[in-house]
Amino acid sequence: MNSRHLNFDPYPGEAAQVNFDEQQSNPTSDQRATEAIVIFDFDQHLFEYPNMWMDHCDPDKKDLALEMTRDELGYPWLWSRATNQLMFIYAKTVPEDGFVSFFGPWQNWKDRKPAEIDYVADMPATCTEPKARVEQLDELGIDKTILLPHFGAVWGRYVYDRLDIIRANLTAWNRWAVTVRQEGGGRLEPSGHVTLRGGNLDWLEKELAYLGKNGIKSAFMSYGLVDGRRMSHPDHDRAWQAFVDNGIVPVFHIQDADVRASGLEEGWFVDAGDPLFTALDMTFSHLGVQVAAADLILNGVFDKFPALKFATVELTAGWIGPLIGATEGIPGSTGNVVNGPGLDISYGYEAIARRHTVQLKRQPSEYLLDHFRSTVNPMEPIKAYFDTGFGKNLMFGSDWPHSEGWNKPLTAFRSKMDGVTAEQDSKFFGGTAAELLGIS
């Protein structure tokens, strides 16, 4: 069994001070009311219905398709017939319930208590059916939403060594994503799901071409080392070119199947006691995305592919400021204690010490602010983010219907938006997401 990731939202971090001028007058509530804001939620999840993988898998790969089965206690599990492996309990989640719906079945199963609820029969249609989700958007006051996988965020760790199983089931999701988009009436923007693994990128290029042809604008993928290669490795240039050519934005989610949030090697988690969640992984839950972003920046990927942009979801925006780091001081003595001195000072120090390995056209922090967009949650200091200059990087995301999500997301977020300008408000709640995906 491969445990590769974290499923909690990290605690929000404090933003570093960056000198960018965003001074505008603050609008009144009446002025905001007159703004024609399209509310675009960049963080919702769609539950894969039990037969989704079998229904959408290639006919010659049905033996690799994931399924739902029940154990001797009556719990429904996501299951791999090919490896005879139970992966994840098929349980619904309820926003703001204190994780009872999410963790309750797991705790009862660990205590060997028989299942009391048929979670498959009890799964709301809004979790699995496109048309029901559109109706739910009306209740939430949301116009459009991205839809990310639910079980797709976790099952890959259990079959990490079986690339054939991984690819077959990612393809199944991608085909369903196209159907969901067609049934969504222009309001659902499901994300594809891909991997860079395998060395040969023919599969990836085929999947991205299929997604792009069918109007999919983003693709969920792991961050971190790819079969031992850094993300910026020249072998991946074909991949980044394919994302750009097909108009697809790579999405880094705090949990994606086969790489831990922290990006730490599995040796750190031997005998951790729980294959899903560890305190060590959560402690460094920003580390993985920071290393991936810094690698892409410092090794010149964005000079090669200036149109390439990334989204990060459920990783908060707390990782951005520390990665930028301090603007002055002695290298190694400033910046966040976890990160070190940050991008710009580190890049400058390299030039003094041994000349640059890669000569960039701009300051590293400029690439970060231009090429990454991130969802936040209401617990973060959103107004402070705007004040410190990376408000343009922020996007609204409710994480509905997960337990860490929000029943009334607009109410929760609006309480943190006092003092922002009408333009900032409009971009945060939809404009930035629409621009990122290139949609109206």
Automatic annotation (TrEMBL):
- Protein name in the entry: Amidohydrolase-related domain-containing protein
Look up and give the organism this protein is from: Mycolicibacterium vanbaalenii (strain DSM 7251 / JCM 13017 / BCRC 16820 / KCTC 9966 / NRRL B-24157 / PYR-1) (Mycobacterium vanbaalenii)
Q: Where is the Amidohydrolase-related domain?
A: 114-439
State a GO cellular component annotated for this protein.
cytoplasm
Name the SUPFAM superfamilies for this protein.
Answer: Metallo-dependent hydrolases
**GO terms for biological process, alphabetical:** secondary metabolic process
Keywords (alphabetical) are: Lyase
InterPro entries (UniProt xref): ACMSD (IPR032465), Amidohydro-rel (IPR006680), Metal_Hydrolase (IPR032466)
Q: What GO molecular functions are on record for this protein?
A: carboxy-lyase activity; hydrolase activity
Q: Which domain of life is it from?
A: Bacteria
